[in-house]
Automatic annotation (TrEMBL):
The chain crosses the membrane at residues 526-546, 558-577, 589-609. The keyword Chloroplast does not apply. It holds the Pfam family Pentapeptide. It comes from the Archaea. Gene3D superfamilies: 1.10.287.70, E3 ubiquitin-protein ligase SopA. Residues 536-614 form the Potassium channel domain. InterPro entries: 5peptide_repeat, K_chnl_dom. Keywords: Membrane, Transmembrane, Transmembrane helix. It comes from Natronococcus occultus SP4. This is Putative low-complexity protein.
Length: 615
């Protein structure tokens, strides 16, 4: 052991004590700092002696500043350690006001498993610059920041910046206040100008008392990751900026106490990517600003109690668990937002805009969806038991102007004149879900193969069935009817496509097509009346064209066209006044067939009117 260096040694291969790159020939990390010579047996440096045992004349902060200034200088030419490494170091109440901690192209800065313990004083990294300008990282892997009493851990005004390939790492770090102190990152900036990231992966934020974890007026100009982090304290993120190229990720994080996330007063929305996938919120979650928490979704026009996600490039809540209900009322989400597999039981989406969002397999039991926009939303496999919707809940695309539908100006409805006419007949509604091949709104996609078509039809049928059930539970017969028709149309399309044996299901296709043609699956009395009128006219033309009927009595003679239609009408309704009769077997057969069809269609008409009346 060199007498001019500290005798602290750690095994690189044990317990993950080292997290940098190193040559395999160096199995141990040897402290590169000068010893103080306080112990006759062990010669430790100022950084590896308990702060309580340091002499009064030893200034730990001054020694740290000097060592950081000498970073990159090594006491041994044959080893990789240098003065900017502090593995396993022990620090007291450090106050690094505005001091730079910067790794370069030539060396790293490493505080792996260091301990910062401010017993009755704050830990202050106010204005400190944690930066990389090359390939090497600034690493606080496994470091512990601990205060007691009412003392805080403060990173106010700090900058976390990567300009090269190196990361700023606080992975597996612990930020703990044993008393009522806060862990505070106020007016901080996270910027990744190179390929490096700022990572707090597997870190822990813990306050034993009434303190909070605060990221107030934080500016995210790059990729910042809080993946698998444990927040065992009330956590408040007040974001002042998220750049469009930035990602703020809480993937897999656990929030054991209330979590508040909102934007500062000078902005209304955020950009960039927000990732809460696989996160678990065990307590209250609030995305409303402090001023807006007192307002409800029924606030006066112009107020927006929840900030807008709409400007974000993407928002990911997939497989997120909200143990308690979450309030997303009045929130606006971008079209590619995903809540796939999320646990959202009891969530409040009143007046929220989820158009184009994906909620596949999401648990939305008891969710409040009053006035929610779900146009183009993917709801395959979603659980909507006891969910609340109303007539203001929008699920289908709608065209606001019937004048535009009818041909004056650019039409908001794709698909030609026939589709425009049908949309106009429905009052501008286009009742197709986003999986339906007929859908034309946001998030609709084309099918590349017949297998893709089968998959989409299956999802469409399931979604129609789910929404139909919710509509019936909330006494919305029109929506329930539209979903029923959509489901039956999709089933007809499925029968028509080839099955696994490459054969169409002709029997099922016919059994499904005829009810749709005659009575729109029992939903349209007009379709029944139209079918009956068509039969009467066709049979009347046949009676007249082929002279199948004649007058009875002394006058005799063939019937005219109007008389043939008159006879056809009486035959269809099974009345028959006896003033006309068939002249041959063909006429008799046609009359019997028309009577049978009349009896059936009249029964169907009674059924349809009864069904509509009992809703």
């Amino acid at each position: 052991m060199d007498s001019d260096t500290c005798e602290y040694v750690t095994e690189i291969t044990k317990q993950g004590n080292w997290h940098g790159t190193h040559p395999p020939k160096f199995p141990k990390w040897r402290c590169p700092h000068q010893p103080l010579g306080l112990d006759a047996e062990k010669q430790y440096c100022v950084f590896h002696i308990d702060p309580d045992k340091l002499p009064d004349e030893v200034d730990e902060l001054k020694a740290l500043r000097q060592a950081l200034n000498d970073a990159g200088n090594s006491p041994r030419d044959d080893r990789p350690e240098h003065r900017g490494q502090f593995v396993g170091a022990k620090f007291g109440a450090i106050h690094l006001f505005g001091f730079p901690i910067e790794a370069t192209e030539d060396y790293d800065i490493r505080f792996d498993h260091a301990r910062f313990h401010g017993e009755n004083a704050d830990l202050r990294f106010v204005g400190t610059k944690f930066a990389t300008s090359g390939q090497y990282p600034v690493s606080f892997y496994g470091a512990k920041f601990i205060t007691e009493g009412d003392c805080d851990i403060l990173f106010d005004g700090a900058n976390f910046i990567t300009k090269g390939d190196g990361d700023v790492l606080f992975e597996d770090a612990e930020f703990i206040t044993e008393g009522d102190g806060d862990v505070r990152f106020k007016d901080v900036e996270f910027a990744t100008e190179g390929n490096g990231d700022v990572r707090f992966k597997d870190a822990e934020f813990i306050t034993r008392g009434d303190g909070d974890v605060r990221f107030e007026d934080a500016e995210f100009d790059g990729n910042t990751f809080f993946e698998d982090v444990d927040f065992d304290a009330t956590s408040r993120f007040v974001v002042s900026q998220i750049e469009r190229t930035a990602m703020l990720s809480f993937e897999g994080a656990d929030f054991y106490e209330p979590f508040f996330f909102n934007v500062s007063n000078d902005i209304q929305d955020i950009c960039g990517d927000l990732d809460f996938s696989y996160a678990t919120f065990h307590d209250e979650v609030d995305f409303r600003s402090d001023d807006d928490r007192s307002t409800s979704h029924s606030s006066p026009a112009g107020q927006c109690p929840t900030f807008s996600f709409n400007s974000a490039d993407s928002v990911d809540f997939s497989n997120t668990k909200f143990i308690k209900s979450v309030d997303f009322s009045d929130a606006n989400f971008p079209a590619d937002t995903t809540f796939d597999g999320a646990r959202l039981s009891g969530a409040n989406f009143v007046e929220a805009d989820l158009s184009g969002a994906s909620l596949e397999r999401a648990q939305l039991n008891r969710a409040e969806l009053l006035g929610t926009k779900l146009v183009g939303a993917k709801l395959y496999g979603a659980l909507l038991g006891n969910a609340r919707i109303d007539r203001e809940t929008r699920i289908w695309p709608e065209a606001q102007s019937l004048r535009r539908i009818s041909g004056f100006g650019k039409s908001p409805v794709d698909g030609g004149v026939w589709r425009r006419l049908r949309a106009g007949w429905r009052g501008g509604r286009v009742p197709y879900c986003c999986y339906d091949p007929r859908y034309w709104g946001p998030s609709g996609t084309a099918c590349d193969s017949e297998r893709d078509m089968q998959e989409r039809l299956e999802k469409a049928a399931e979604m129609y069935g789910t929404v139909e059930t919710v509509a019936r539970d909330n006494s919305l017969p029109r929506l329930a009817s539209e979903c029923f028709l959509g489901r039956k149309d999709v089933q007809l399309r499925q029968y028509w496509l080839k099955d696994d044996d490459e054969e169409r299901q002709w029997l099922m296709t016919i059994q499904s097509f005829i009810p749709s043609l005659v009575a729109r699956y029992g939903e349209s009395p007009w379709r029944v009346l139209g079918t009956g009128t068509f039969i009467v006219l066709v049979c009347g033309l046949a009676y007249w064209a082929f002279e199948l009927i004649e007058r009875t009595g002394e006058t005799g003679g063939s019937a005219t066209l109007l008389e043939s239609i008159y006879f056809s009408s009486l035959t269809f309704t099974t009345l028959g006044y006896g003033d006309f009769r068939p002249v041959n077997r063909a006429g008799q057969f046609l009359a019997v067939a028309e009577t049978a069809m009349g009896v059936i269609l009249l029964a169907i008409l009674v059924f349809v009117f009864g069904r509509r009346a009992t809703r």
